[in-house]
Write a structure and sequence with these properties.
Shape: flat
Number of domains: 1
Oligomer: single chain
Largest sheet: none
Radius of gyration: 16 Å
Helix content: over 70%
Structural class: mainly alpha
Number of strands: 0
Order of helices and strands: HHHHH
Number of helices: 5
Amino acid sequence: MTDYFIFRNSILKYCLILSTIFITLFFVLGENRLAYGFILGAIISTINFYLMSLSNLKLITIQQSSRAILNFISKNLLFRYILIFLTLIIALKYPLISFSGTLIGLFVVQMSIIFKNFI
């Protein structure tokens, strides 16, 4: 179980490093809207990853029927999709936040996993 926490925390650490690099780059280049969108997307992506890790821990310890497990998985997935959907709506609605920056930020966890494992 401790390997799971070490893996999760290392991914979160790489998310922070990668986000810092991108945000600094966007601000240096003068792309403030892109930086704000990236910040929004990165925060939601990290929260989404953390919620997924919490639900995985709960699924390991759950001792219920398969119907209850499926119900738990469905509700959790729906909540995380709604979170991402609302993030994209916010990015479209407010002109200060770049939609493309938000999309890039939403993939920060995936980029961190690739960065951690292949670079």
